[in-house]
Amino acid sequence: xxxxxxTRAFNGRGVLAIFRFEMARARRTLWQSLVTxxxxxxxxxxxxxxxxxxxxxxxxxxxYGAFIVPGLxxxxxxxxxxxxxxxxxxxxxxxxxxxxILSAPISAFEMVLGYVGAAAAKSVILGLxxxxxxxxxxxxxxxxxxxxxxxxxxxxxTFSLFGFIIGIWAKGFEQLQFVPMLIITPLxxxxxxxxxxxxxxxxxxxxxxxxxxxxxxxxFRWSFYGTSDVGVGISLAATLGILALCLALVWWIxxxxxxxxx
Length: 262
What we know:
By secondary structure, this protein is mainly α. The protein has one domain (about 10-255). The chain is built from 11 helices and 2 strands. The chain has a two-stranded antiparallel ribbon. The longest helix has 27 residues, at about 70-95. The termini are far apart.
């Protein structure tokens, strides 16, 4: 007597349906999703580039206006990845359609791939648009373009996963905004987005090394100018470590049904 096992094929159409729905939502809110971050970044260049750049000519041999470009891209990338992904999964929970998705013939992996893939894709596009906008203000060189794209995609994916977790954890719109506004943004400003942590006094520099955002920004800046606050290998390991932690949390959420089945 033989045992027949059935292996369900990968539901690419289901993943694509979620991906297209999320990308269509971004097109409907194009001003908020793309135009507003670009305008905000341009204002950063005007304020920081003109006001501070006139008094600080170079940082690690890089003109200050160009030095802050990777930090500005990362700041927008963190914020948009968290916002897009958290809202994308929170809205179905809020209106109750999450149960239709959970009962559909689509696995947890495919569901996460659709939501997180769309959020990461939107963030990468935004990062590239901001990079193109920055070239209108300052001359930029990218010494390691492949690594630049790798850090961009890895960071967007990591924070989109983090946003997915926040979207499931949040009980209301206030909690949805709590982590990006009160935790991630301050960590970014204190993580060397607009300065090198080597410029800090010894104690504060050591304290900054406990900020995970330092490693993400440092590795990304290295891909542009070959200069970084910490070793690029350490930056890559930190990025992959945070990504692995987020994947473990997402696995636990679907394993236990945390705030998905109640």
